[in-house]
Design brief:
The protein has 507 residues and is of the alpha/beta class. It contains 15 helices and 22 strands. Helix 2 runs antiparallel to helix 4, helix 3 packs across helix 4 and helix 7 runs parallel beside helix 8. GO terms for molecular function: malonate-semialdehyde dehydrogenase (acetylating) activity; methylmalonate-semialdehyde dehydrogenase (acylating, NAD) activity.
Length: 507
């Protein structure tokens, strides 16, 4: 199902968005968009031609001339309207997302909602894009800063959050006065396109938001294009590193949020029921296809006795199509993803980990062709094992052991990734020690997936991130704007000339 194919008339084609118009691509390369629960072909997505990429960027460049001058209040009002439209169409958006991505309908609504929060934050741009002023820094001299847009910016988004992550990107870029070229995942672009339709309906002018589709060639074209000033990326470490290393030498600003191996420390004093529920939800929700999923639980001391109860908790989760009621774990995105996860489970067994719960080849009546992997639990996992070192991106929870909190912290800090981490404890002292000593960007205390709300910045670190600034919150305002510092002195007729001054000082 991953092969590129020629389009047929039986299935709808996903359009490009260029200059305010949804247009049919002239490409000869296409890919099926497949329902991962049923293998039904939902649509075909084009791999845009070089000319189409250039047209999208040219449209954004031309629109920037007027958009950058649009009053900040007018920009904010567009996003006030946009958040209303997203709310009104929440059910439809979630249904599209579930069909093409596989996650459950409630989780799909959560995907849209977390993006909606960023749209709401974008509507407060009047309080966000503020400069600084110092009056009379020297005799009659004022200094102030302007936060001005960069120009054409671009975003490259992954398959696992086809609503939330595009909504992390283009609203904040556009509301700060930039124009945007978006490349969604070719695996599930349909909900992204519906969100773009609503964005135009909200009042985003022609050319301010453009969408192109494709694979490696289109990614490279974005990295190389001289008229693109900044790139925001979320996806795998391999592709993110490529994007960063290719785009940075061209003078672009680049932020890449990449892979993870998120650990949660479980202290023996933690509330057992709440902790087991949190681990099961964070480890197996969205079929483990979250960059902030808990994929390793470090059991400290007597918490190591909780493994059987965690396994029983995992067994209660219902596997099935995301559209079915009561389903907890939907399919992974593709046949290739399913085969990769199953292969890593086999490797975990070979490496000596204890397979406490095997999720391979689950029985899902009515969806025998779906890409299903059930909740899987490995105990006695150690560094050096492939299942510990690699991001599995499936519903596989690895359990490691530690004698003390210090040993657990040392284990986490030795891992190269730094996206998210958590601790479960009722001890304030343990929680404070953890938050101070852990070398990870986003920390949860009795919160399994500590993705910050949009008033704060997404702060993954170390091997999980390239670039200094995060994709939303205060940091992204700095990413999408150039600070211009102005030093000004005004003279009137009463000003006494002090003659020629050849020093650097302002007097």
């Amino acid at each position: 199902m991953d092969a590129k194919v020629k389009p047929t008339t039986q299935v709808a084609t996903v359009k490009l968005l260029i200059g305010g118009e949804f247009v049919e691509s002239k490409t000869t390369e296409w890919r099926d968009v497949v329902n991962p629960a049923t293998q039904e072909v939902l649509a075909r997505v084009p791999f845009a031609t070089p000319a189409e990429v250039d047209a999208a960027v040219a449209s954004a460049k031309d629109a920037f001339k007027t958009w950058k001058k649009t009053p900040i209040g007018a920009r904010a009002r567009i996003f006030l309207k946009y958040q209303q439209l997203i709310r009104e169409n929440m059910g439809e958006l979630a249904a599209i997302l579930t069909a093409e991505q596989g996650k459950t309908l409630p989780d799909a609504e959560g995907d849209v909602f977390r993006g909606l929060e960023v749209v709401e934050h974008a509507a407060s741009i009047g309080n966000l894009q503020l400069g600084e002023l110092a009056n009379n820094v020297a005799n009659g001299v004022d200094t102030y800063t302007l936060l001005q847009p960069l120009g054409v910016c671009a975003g490259i988004t992954p398959f696992n959050f086809p609503a939330m992550i595009p909504l992390w990107m283009f609203p904040m870029a556009i509301v700060t006065g930039n124009t945007f070229v978006l490349k969604p995942s070719e695996q599930d672009p349909m909900v992204t396109m519906r969100l773009c339709e609503l964005a135009l309906q909200a009042g985003i002018p022609a050319g301010v938001l453009n969408v192109i589709h494709g694979g490696e060639a289109v990614v490279n074209a974005i990295c190389d294009h001289k008229d693109i000033k900044a790139i925001s990326f979320v996806g795998s470490t391999k592709v993110g590193t490529h994007v960063y290393n290719r785009a940075i030498p061209t003078g672009k600003r680049v932020q890449c949020m990449m892979g993870a191996k998120n650990h949660a420390i479980v202290m023996p004093d933690a509330n057992k029921e709440q902790t087991l529920n949190a681990l099961a939800g964070a480890g197996f929700g969205a079929a483990g296809q979250r960059c902030m999923a808990v994929s390793v639980a470090v059991l400290v001391g007597d918490a190591q006795k909780w493994v059987p109860e965690l396994v029983e908790k995992a067994k209660t989760l219902k596997i099935g199509a995301g559209t079915d009621k009561g389903v907890d774990v939907g399919p992974v995105i593709s046949c290739a993803a399913r085969d990769r996860v199953n292969g890593l489970i086999e490797r975990g067994i070979a490496d000596g980990a204890t397979l406490a719960l095997d999720g391979r080849k689950p029985s899902v009546p009515g969806y025998e062709t779906g890409n299903f992997v059930g909740p899987t639990v490995f105990a006695d996992v150690k560094p050096g094992m492939v299942i510990y070192e690699q991001e599995i991106f499936g519903p596989v929870l690895c359990l490691a052991n530690a004698a003390t909190i210090d040993e657990a912290i040392e284990l986490i800090n030795a891992n190269p990734n730094g996206n998210g981490t958590a601790i479960f404890t009722q001890s304030g002292a343990a929680a404070r020690k953890f938050q101070e000593e852990i070398d990870v960007g986003q920390v949860g205390i009795n919160v399994p997936i500590p993705v910050p709300v949009p008033m704060f910045s997404f702060t993954g670190s170390r091997a999980s991130k390239l670039g200094d600034l995060g994709p939303y919150g205060k940091q992204v305002i700095m990413f999408y704007t150039q600070t211009k510092t102005v030093t000004a002195r005004w003279f009137d007729d009463s000003t006494v000339s002090q003659g020629v001054n050849t020093t650097i000082s302002l007097k």
